[in-house]
Amino acid sequence: MKKRLLSIILTLCMAMSITPLNAFAVTEYGIWIGDEQVTSDKTWSKQGWKYDIQSKTLTLLGYNMATIGKRINGNSERPSRFGLIYVEGEQDLNIKLVGSIDLGDSPFSSQAATKYNESYSGIYAPDSNITIIGSGTFSAVTHDAAIYCSNLTIGDGTEQNATNVSCESFGACIIVKYNMIVNDYSTVWACANGPTVGMNGIYVEGSLYVNGTNTTVEGRATYRPVKGECTNYTHYRPKNLTSGGYFNNAGSTIAGIMVYGILTVDGSKVEGNVFKEIYKPQEYDSEYTSGLEAGGIVIKNNATVEGRNINPSTPGFMEYGVQVHHYAIKFLGRGRVRAGTEYVDYESVNRGFRKSGGNEITVSGRLKLYESDTCPADFKKFAQYGFGGYTEYYTENMDDIYIKDDNGRGKMSYFKDMHDYETFYLASGIDLKDIYEIDLDTNVPFDVNILSGDIKMNIDIKSGFELPKIIVYDGATLKLKTSPDKTYNFTYPIELKGGTIEFTNSAIVR
């Protein structure tokens, strides 16, 4: 019996000796929460987090952490830099918020480091793609970036998982090396308090897409006269714009929101604000500041983009509310872009809106573009005396073309209620090419409605344009002015709804 027992023990020892060591190895996932590392043996903590290996989801359950994190830089480097949530290498990580998540401490956003020469970041994941979801709230108050990653997505677009992200840092607050997406039912607020060049509330080297009618995004830069500088990665100045940036002066601006590619806003509201809390020119006034700056702006579905530059005294070198570069602004739907600079020196370049690169502001579909320099009350919310330099571009959906006799004068409008109209002399009539070829996307057919009176219309139209459908209503007479040496092809019919029509000269009409 003893020999048999000894034989079994010997056999087990031999089996153990030939078992690969990695069969007992712990898998590391390159994720640290505070000073705790996520491994195959540690996927949850009573500190308030758990990690699902299959879905690559880190769930934060009312997690709070102020000063314990993963060391980012070398032990001999100063200040000592830490990531409160650290993600190593290239990977995709979902962060699900449950309850209130708080990283950092309130004094951090007004200093470069603690008295112990320690500097803290919130989510430090420069080579990883981060998606923040869940119905909780994420708050980070840090020295260095509150969020730093390759690509960033906020929210899943559902009301039940409305996501709130609020960040404040001494340096650049949210840094995204490629693209950022903010989905519906999300709220994002990010503020950078450092005065150093390149400090932005939200910095996106690629493009920023904000969608949904229940979404708001605000980036701020307060430009305070404080001492100290953040560590070098917050001055993110890429040598090569690998993500398709449209201008190349990386890091030269202090801005509430800086997007090197295209800012697309679909039904949402996006604000970029600079608050210069200094009352005389300073060293950094040799650089320019913008409330919001982008390579281009695309507006859809009644979206709003606003940029404010609050400069309560003499302007610096160049100061703008909104600055756009090569792709200017494109309206693909109703919406508005509003830009203001509180103090304007009219002999300098300081003003509400600046467009560089030569491209024009464009519209598509049934949109009419307007420009205004009258600052509305709701835009003045941060400036005590309003804005000396203000520019607003906005669009309205046009209905069709409406023409009538209004007490002896001709009136033409692109709106059925005629709230915006132009007038003309009835005796002279109106030229179709002046109201149909200019400022209209004629790929979208517009009907011409003759509502009342004797209306003379010259239907000579530029080659390549089709004659539109014309409707003449009861009590109206349309007198078509034609040239005898031309042939007119009506693709659409002339419809008489009780009205009459007359042709002048002997033109050929088909």
Structural class: mainly beta
First-residue to last-residue Cα separation: 115 Å
What is the count of DSSP helices, taking H or I runs of 4+ residues?
2
- How is the biggest beta sheet arranged? 11 strands, mixed
Q: Runs with pLDDT <50, length 5+?
A: 225-252, 278-286
**Helicity level, as a percent range?**
under 10%
How would you describe this protein?
This protein is mainly β and 510 residues long. The radius of gyration is 31 Å and the shape is elongated. The protein starts with a helix and ends with a strand. Helices cover 4% and strands 47% of the residues. An eleven-stranded mixed β-sheet has the order 6-10-12-14-17-20-22-24-27-31-30, with no helix packed on it. 45% of the residues are buried.
Secondary-structure blueprint of this entry?
Layout: H1 2-18, E1 28-33, E2 36-39, E3 44-45, E4 49-52, E5 57-61, E6 64-65, E7 70-71, E8 80-87, E9 92-98, E10 100-104, E11 118-133, E12 137-142, E13 147-154, E14 163-169, E15 174-176, E16 180-182, E17 186-192, E18 200-204, E19 208-211, E20 216-221, E21 253-266, E22 269-275, E23 288-300, E24 303-310, E25 318-324, E26 329-331, E27 335-341, E28 351-355, E29 362-363, E30 367-372, E31 389-397, E32 401-406, E33 409-413, E34 421-424, E35 430-431, H2 432-436, E36 448-450, E37 453-458, E38 470-473, E39 476-481, E40 487-488, E41 494-497, E42 500-503, E43 508-509
Parallel strand pairs: 5-9, 6-10, 8-11, 9-11, 10-12, 11-13, 12-14, 13-15, 13-16, 14-17, 15-18, 16-19, 17-20, 18-21, 19-21, 20-22, 21-23, 22-24, 23-25, 23-26, 24-27, 25-28, 26-29, 32-36, 35-37, 36-38, 37-39, 38-41, 39-42, 40-43
Antiparallel strand pairs: 1-2, 1-8, 3-4, 4-5, 7-8, 27-31, 30-31, 32-33, 33-34
